[in-house]
Design brief:
The protein is 23% helix and 35% strand. The protein is an alpha+beta fold.
Length: 315
């Protein structure tokens, strides 16, 4: 007999407004303890110096984390002109300085060049692995790194505020793997200035937005008073761009056992219509969410006219 898991079988998502100064892993630990949940995980690490949206999965929701990691994200950040730091944020040591203070209009004009698919060199102080070691560990040891450019996409980038000549605020919508610190670095270089990210807030991860996120202390208070369930979002929140298909109780049982089911002609037509309305993608080899009686059954893939389970949810 397997060992019984400690904690309660709590499942769902929490849109946490992570406070500045707290790492993502400790934040997950505090949320898990607040709910006394058996399992917890997060989608998309936020540095301790960054605040904002940190989606945290509890219980069965941990099975959907991988589907949220690839989601688009939005950030609001401030560049402080005058100093370039080793880490391109306020934590790093100053490695260069300049009296150049770019005008907001010049920043806005250069930002246009970074919208779309671009090749971006990650910061040396990043979690990318180099020969099995994290880049930030090597950088701290003084190792010179030659990181290769990576293709990323920035959907929108605009200047939102310039409170004084030393600072400028920017907002971006971007895809997976985009580094805000690298964008700030490249903007400074392109403008002949020195600068670093002095503040950073993640305002969105997929369907999770900052205006609907909850502060950690408030969450802990609610859980202590028995109101924690009020902030739990459904497990399927991370799967909002995956078409759902209702199946019979019999088919739900087969899927829950890891066995595929044969799609009926009407189900095939239903899925084709839903997939076409989403992105016009091909019907073959697509991900589908199987439900029964309004409850999640499994995340499945279409394979040769069958629906094969790849993630099964416990009732």
């Amino acid at each position: 007999m397997g060992r019984k898991r400690k904690g309660d079988a709590v499942s769902g998502w929490v849109a946490l407004d992570k406070p500045v100064g707290l790492g993502s892993t400790p934040a997950v630990g505090r949320v898990r303890r607040a709910f006394n949940a058996q399992k917890a995980g997060h989608a998309g690490t936020l540095d301790p110096l960054a605040g904002g949206v940190l989606p945290i999965a509890l219980g069965e929701a941990t099975k959907t984390v991988s589907y949220l990691v690839d989601a688009d994200k939005s950030y609001r950040f401030t560049i402080a002109w005058g100093e370039t730091t080793a880490s391109h944020d306020r934590e790093g040591a100053t490695i260069a300085s300049s009296d150049v203070r770019p005008a907001p209009g010049a920043v806005a004009d250069l930002l246009k060049a970074f919208v779309g698919e671009i090749d971006q060199i990650p910061p040396a102080y990043s979690a990318i692995k180099v020969d099995g070691e994290r880049a930030y560990n090597l950088a701290r040891e003084g190792v010179e790194l030659d990181l290769k450019p990576r293709r990323v996409v920035i959907h929108r980038a605009e200047v939102t505020e310039a409170p004084d000549q030393d600072h400028i605020e920017i907002e971006i919508d971007c895809g997976k793997g985009t580094y805000v610190r690298a964008l700030a670095r490249d903007l400074a270089v392109g403008l002949g200035a020195c600068g670093h990210v002095s503040s950073l807030t993640r305002t969105r991860v997929g369907p999770f937005e900052l205006h609907a996120a909850i502060a950690l202390e408030k969450l802990e208070t609610m859980c202590h008073t028995g109101a924690g369930s009020e902030v739990l979002l459904p497990v399927e929140t991370a799967l909002d761009d995956i078409p759902a298909l209702a199946v019979t109780n019999e088919d739900a049982f087969r899927l829950s056992q890891g066995r595929p089911i044969v799609l009926l002609p009407r189900q095939v037509e239903t899925l084709k219509t839903r997939l076409a309305s989403l992105d016009g993608a091909e019907f073959a080899s697509r991900t589908v969410l199987a439900t029964s009686g309004g409850a999640l059954v499994a995340i499945c893939e279409i394979r040769a006219g069958q629906l094969g389970p790849i993630r099964v949810f416990n009732p």
